[in-house]
Protein backbone atom coordinates (compact mmCIF):
# COMPACT_ATOMS: atom_id res chain seq x y z
CA UNK A 1 0.00 0.00 0.00
CA UNK A 2 2.86 2.38 0.78
CA UNK A 3 4.20 1.64 -2.70
CA UNK A 4 1.13 3.31 -4.25
CA UNK A 5 2.07 6.91 -3.31
CA UNK A 6 5.59 6.37 -4.65
CA UNK A 7 4.09 5.42 -8.00
CA UNK A 8 2.80 9.00 -8.05
CA UNK A 9 6.20 9.84 -9.52
CA UNK A 10 4.71 8.68 -12.81
CA UNK A 11 2.72 11.90 -12.90
CA UNK A 12 5.96 13.82 -13.37
CA UNK A 13 6.92 11.60 -16.29
CA UNK A 14 3.47 11.60 -17.83
CA UNK A 15 3.24 15.39 -17.55
CA UNK A 16 6.48 15.66 -19.49
CA UNK A 17 5.40 13.11 -22.07
CA UNK A 18 5.23 15.70 -24.82
CA UNK A 19 8.63 17.05 -23.89
CA UNK A 20 10.76 14.27 -22.46
CA UNK A 21 13.79 16.43 -23.12
CA UNK A 22 12.80 18.20 -19.91
CA UNK A 23 14.26 15.21 -18.08
CA UNK A 24 18.01 14.71 -18.22
CA UNK A 25 17.65 10.94 -18.17
CA UNK A 26 14.86 9.61 -20.40
CA UNK A 27 15.72 6.01 -19.51
CA UNK A 28 14.73 6.53 -15.88
CA UNK A 29 11.42 8.09 -16.88
CA UNK A 30 10.61 5.33 -19.35
CA UNK A 31 11.43 2.68 -16.75
CA UNK A 32 9.15 4.21 -14.12
CA UNK A 33 6.25 4.46 -16.56
CA UNK A 34 6.59 0.76 -17.39
CA UNK A 35 7.20 -0.45 -13.85
CA UNK A 36 4.40 -2.11 -11.88
CA UNK A 37 4.53 -4.07 -8.64
CA UNK A 38 3.61 -7.37 -10.29
CA UNK A 39 4.51 -10.93 -9.43
CA UNK A 40 7.49 -12.14 -11.42
CA UNK A 41 9.03 -8.69 -11.79
CA UNK A 42 11.92 -8.16 -9.44
CA UNK A 43 14.30 -5.26 -9.04
CA UNK A 44 16.85 -4.41 -6.41
CA UNK A 45 15.55 -1.86 -3.93
CA UNK A 46 18.69 0.23 -4.35
CA UNK A 47 18.18 0.45 -8.11
CA UNK A 48 14.53 1.44 -7.81
CA UNK A 49 15.40 4.05 -5.18
CA UNK A 50 17.97 5.53 -7.59
CA UNK A 51 15.40 5.74 -10.40
CA UNK A 52 12.72 7.39 -8.27
CA UNK A 53 14.97 9.76 -6.33
CA UNK A 54 16.75 10.97 -9.48
CA UNK A 55 13.51 11.52 -11.35
CA UNK A 56 11.80 13.24 -8.41
CA UNK A 57 14.75 15.63 -8.07
CA UNK A 58 14.65 16.51 -11.74
CA UNK A 59 10.87 16.61 -11.72
CA UNK A 60 10.82 18.92 -8.73
CA UNK A 61 13.01 21.37 -10.61
CA UNK A 62 11.05 20.95 -13.83
CA UNK A 63 7.67 21.50 -12.18
CA UNK A 64 8.66 24.67 -10.35
CA UNK A 65 6.15 27.26 -11.45
CA UNK A 66 4.01 24.52 -13.01
CA UNK A 67 1.22 23.97 -10.45
CA UNK A 68 -0.89 22.09 -12.97
CA UNK A 69 1.75 19.37 -13.00
CA UNK A 70 2.51 19.35 -9.31
CA UNK A 71 -1.21 19.39 -8.64
CA UNK A 72 -1.53 15.95 -10.17
CA UNK A 73 0.58 14.49 -7.40
CA UNK A 74 -1.02 13.01 -4.31
CA UNK A 75 -0.05 15.19 -1.33
CA UNK A 76 1.59 12.20 0.39
CA UNK A 77 3.98 11.53 -2.49
CA UNK A 78 6.50 14.12 -1.29
CA UNK A 79 6.65 12.57 2.19
CA UNK A 80 7.47 9.10 0.86
CA UNK A 81 9.94 10.41 -1.71
CA UNK A 82 11.72 12.33 1.05
CA UNK A 83 11.96 9.08 3.03
CA UNK A 84 13.05 6.78 0.20
CA UNK A 85 16.29 5.78 1.92
CA UNK A 86 14.35 4.40 4.88
CA UNK A 87 11.55 2.81 2.84
CA UNK A 88 13.95 1.01 0.48
CA UNK A 89 15.69 -0.79 3.33
CA UNK A 90 15.13 -4.55 3.09
CA UNK A 91 14.03 -4.67 6.73
CA UNK A 92 11.75 -1.62 6.42
CA UNK A 93 8.60 -1.70 8.54
CA UNK A 94 6.07 1.19 8.65
CA UNK A 95 6.60 2.22 12.25
CA UNK A 96 6.23 6.00 12.24
CA UNK A 97 2.76 7.50 12.58
CA UNK A 98 3.12 9.35 9.29
CA UNK A 99 3.90 6.11 7.45
CA UNK A 100 0.37 4.94 8.16
CA UNK A 101 -1.61 8.18 8.16
CA UNK A 102 -0.20 9.48 4.89
CA UNK A 103 -0.92 6.35 2.89
CA UNK A 104 -3.51 6.99 0.19
CA UNK A 105 -5.51 4.12 -1.25
CA UNK A 106 -8.40 5.03 -3.51
CA UNK A 107 -11.78 3.38 -3.00
CA UNK A 108 -12.59 0.97 -5.82
CA UNK A 109 -16.28 0.48 -6.49
CA UNK A 110 -18.62 0.47 -3.49
CA UNK A 111 -17.34 -0.57 -0.06
CA UNK A 112 -19.52 -1.08 3.02
CA UNK A 113 -18.22 -0.64 6.57
CA UNK A 114 -20.17 -1.87 9.62
CA UNK A 115 -19.36 -0.66 13.13
CA UNK A 116 -21.02 -0.05 16.49
CA UNK A 117 -21.06 3.21 18.48
CA UNK A 118 -22.67 3.33 21.91
CA UNK A 119 -24.29 -0.05 21.20
CA UNK A 120 -25.92 1.35 18.06
CA UNK A 121 -25.00 -0.36 14.76
CA UNK A 122 -23.98 1.87 11.85
CA UNK A 123 -23.40 1.06 8.21
CA UNK A 124 -21.21 3.40 6.19
CA UNK A 125 -21.11 3.08 2.41
CA UNK A 126 -17.94 4.41 0.79
CA UNK A 127 -18.28 5.12 -2.93
CA UNK A 128 -15.67 5.50 -5.65
CA UNK A 129 -15.38 9.17 -6.65
CA UNK A 130 -14.26 8.54 -10.23
CA UNK A 131 -16.64 9.81 -12.89
CA UNK A 132 -17.16 6.35 -14.33
CA UNK A 133 -18.60 5.22 -10.98
CA UNK A 134 -21.11 8.05 -10.39
CA UNK A 135 -24.06 6.15 -11.87
CA UNK A 136 -23.55 3.39 -9.30
CA UNK A 137 -24.08 5.80 -6.41
CA UNK A 138 -27.84 5.93 -6.76
CA UNK A 139 -28.24 2.31 -5.73
CA UNK A 140 -26.66 3.27 -2.39
CA UNK A 141 -28.95 6.21 -1.57
CA UNK A 142 -32.11 4.24 -0.84
CA UNK A 143 -32.87 4.10 2.88
CA UNK A 144 -29.87 6.11 4.05
CA UNK A 145 -30.05 8.50 7.00
CA UNK A 146 -27.37 11.05 6.10
CA UNK A 147 -24.92 11.86 3.34
CA UNK A 148 -21.36 12.72 4.37
CA UNK A 149 -19.77 14.70 1.55
CA UNK A 150 -15.97 14.85 1.85
CA UNK A 151 -14.19 17.79 0.20
CA UNK A 152 -10.40 17.85 0.03
CA UNK A 153 -9.53 21.54 0.39
CA UNK A 154 -5.89 20.92 -0.42
CA UNK A 155 -6.86 19.81 -3.94
CA UNK A 156 -8.33 23.19 -4.88
CA UNK A 157 -5.44 23.76 -7.32
CA UNK A 158 -5.29 20.21 -8.70
CA UNK A 159 -6.75 18.59 -11.77
CA UNK A 160 -8.60 15.28 -12.07
CA UNK A 161 -6.39 12.31 -12.76
CA UNK A 162 -8.79 11.18 -15.52
CA UNK A 163 -9.23 14.71 -16.88
CA UNK A 164 -6.39 17.06 -15.97
CA UNK A 165 -7.89 20.24 -17.46
CA UNK A 166 -10.83 19.93 -15.04
CA UNK A 167 -10.13 21.41 -11.62
CA UNK A 168 -10.97 19.24 -8.60
CA UNK A 169 -12.86 22.07 -6.90
CA UNK A 170 -15.10 22.52 -9.94
CA UNK A 171 -15.77 18.78 -9.94
CA UNK A 172 -16.59 18.76 -6.21
CA UNK A 173 -19.00 21.65 -6.64
CA UNK A 174 -20.76 20.00 -9.56
CA UNK A 175 -21.26 16.73 -7.70
CA UNK A 176 -22.39 18.50 -4.53
CA UNK A 177 -24.92 20.61 -6.43
CA UNK A 178 -26.32 17.52 -8.14
CA UNK A 179 -26.83 15.74 -4.83
CA UNK A 180 -28.22 18.61 -2.81
CA UNK A 181 -30.68 19.68 -5.53
CA UNK A 182 -31.93 16.18 -6.26
CA UNK A 183 -35.55 15.89 -5.14
CA UNK A 184 -34.98 12.26 -4.15
CA UNK A 185 -32.74 13.31 -1.27
CA UNK A 186 -34.56 14.51 1.83
CA UNK A 187 -31.71 13.46 4.11
CA UNK A 188 -29.33 15.66 6.04
CA UNK A 189 -26.18 16.40 4.06
CA UNK A 190 -23.00 17.09 6.03
CA UNK A 191 -20.09 18.56 4.08
CA UNK A 192 -16.67 17.90 5.56
CA UNK A 193 -14.17 20.51 4.35
CA UNK A 194 -11.19 18.26 5.00
CA UNK A 195 -7.38 18.54 4.87
CA UNK A 196 -7.25 22.10 6.16
CA UNK A 197 -3.72 21.44 7.44
CA UNK A 198 -2.47 20.66 3.93
CA UNK A 199 -4.20 23.75 2.58
CA UNK A 200 -2.35 25.91 5.12
CA UNK A 201 0.92 24.25 4.11
CA UNK A 202 0.30 25.00 0.43
CA UNK A 203 -0.57 28.63 1.12
CA UNK A 204 2.76 29.31 2.79
CA UNK A 205 4.34 29.77 -0.61
CA UNK A 206 1.28 31.27 -2.29
CA UNK A 207 0.73 35.02 -2.62
CA UNK A 208 -3.01 34.76 -1.95
CA UNK A 209 -4.39 35.31 1.49
CA UNK A 210 -5.34 32.12 3.31
CA UNK A 211 -8.40 33.64 5.00
CA UNK A 212 -9.77 34.87 1.67
CA UNK A 213 -9.31 31.45 0.10
CA UNK A 214 -10.94 29.65 3.02
CA UNK A 215 -13.90 32.06 2.92
CA UNK A 216 -14.29 31.45 -0.81
CA UNK A 217 -14.12 27.66 -0.43
CA UNK A 218 -16.77 27.70 2.29
CA UNK A 219 -19.06 29.85 0.13
CA UNK A 220 -18.67 27.39 -2.75
CA UNK A 221 -20.45 24.72 -0.72
CA UNK A 222 -22.77 26.83 1.41
CA UNK A 223 -24.76 28.73 -1.18
CA UNK A 224 -27.21 25.84 -1.34
CA UNK A 225 -27.20 25.33 2.41
CA UNK A 226 -30.51 24.81 4.16
CA UNK A 227 -31.21 24.70 7.90
CA UNK A 228 -30.98 20.89 8.09
CA UNK A 229 -27.58 20.85 6.41
CA UNK A 230 -24.26 21.39 8.11
CA UNK A 231 -20.58 21.81 7.29
CA UNK A 232 -17.42 20.93 9.20
CA UNK A 233 -13.82 22.02 8.63
CA UNK A 234 -11.59 19.13 9.63
CA UNK A 235 -8.18 17.55 9.57
CA UNK A 236 -8.69 13.79 9.47
CA UNK A 237 -5.41 12.92 11.21
CA UNK A 238 -6.00 15.45 14.01
CA UNK A 239 -7.32 13.74 17.13
CA UNK A 240 -8.92 16.98 18.29
CA UNK A 241 -11.27 16.81 15.30
CA UNK A 242 -12.99 13.75 16.75
CA UNK A 243 -15.66 16.00 18.25
CA UNK A 244 -16.80 16.55 14.67
CA UNK A 245 -17.49 12.86 14.33
CA UNK A 246 -19.48 12.87 17.56
CA UNK A 247 -21.54 15.78 16.21
CA UNK A 248 -22.20 13.81 13.02
CA UNK A 249 -23.21 10.78 15.06
CA UNK A 250 -25.70 12.87 17.04
CA UNK A 251 -27.16 14.27 13.81
CA UNK A 252 -27.68 10.77 12.44
CA UNK A 253 -29.30 9.58 15.65
CA UNK A 254 -31.70 12.54 15.59
CA UNK A 255 -32.69 11.66 12.02
CA UNK A 256 -33.32 8.05 13.04
CA UNK A 257 -35.51 9.13 15.98
CA UNK A 258 -37.39 11.52 13.71
CA UNK A 259 -38.14 8.68 11.28
CA UNK A 260 -39.31 6.45 14.13
CA UNK A 261 -41.67 9.14 15.42
CA UNK A 262 -43.20 9.54 11.95
CA UNK A 263 -43.87 5.82 11.55
From TrEMBL:
Q: What is this protein identified as?
A: Uncharacterized protein
Q: Which InterPro entries match?
A: Gprotein_alpha_su, GproteinA_insert, P-loop_NTPase
SMART domains referenced in this protein's UniProt entry, alphabetically: G_alpha (SM00275)
Q: Which PANTHER family match?
A: GTP-BINDING PROTEIN ALPHA SUBUNIT (PTHR10218), GUANINE NUCLEOTIDE-BINDING PROTEIN SUBUNIT ALPHA-12 (PTHR10218:SF130)
Q: Which residues hold Mg(2+)?
A: 107
Regions annotated as coiled coil? none
SUPFAM superfamilies documented for this protein: P-loop containing nucleoside triphosphate hydrolases, Transducin (alpha subunit), insertion domain
| PROSITE patterns membership | G_ALPHA (PS51882)
Residues spanning the signal sequence = none
Q: Which GO terms of the cellular component aspect does the record hold?
A: brush border membrane; cytoplasm; heterotrimeric G-protein complex
- Residues recorded as binding GTP, renumbered to this chain, are 101-107, 126-130, 194-197
Q: Name one GO biological process term.
A: adenylate cyclase-modulating G protein-coupled receptor signaling pathway
Provide the transmembrane region boundaries.
none
**Keywords for this entry?**
GTP-binding, Magnesium, Metal-binding, Nucleotide-binding, Transducer
The UniProt GO MF terms for this protein read:
D5 dopamine receptor binding; G-protein beta/gamma-subunit complex binding; GTP binding; GTPase activity; metal ion binding
Amino acid sequence: TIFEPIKGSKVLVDAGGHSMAAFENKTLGMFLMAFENKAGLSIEAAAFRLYVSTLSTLGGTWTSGRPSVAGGLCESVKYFLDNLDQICQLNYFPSKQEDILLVRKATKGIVEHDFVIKKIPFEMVDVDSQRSQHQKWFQCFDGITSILFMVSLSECNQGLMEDWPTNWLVEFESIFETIINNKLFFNSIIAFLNKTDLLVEKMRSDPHQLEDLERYLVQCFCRWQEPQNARCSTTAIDGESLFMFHAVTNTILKEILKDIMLQ
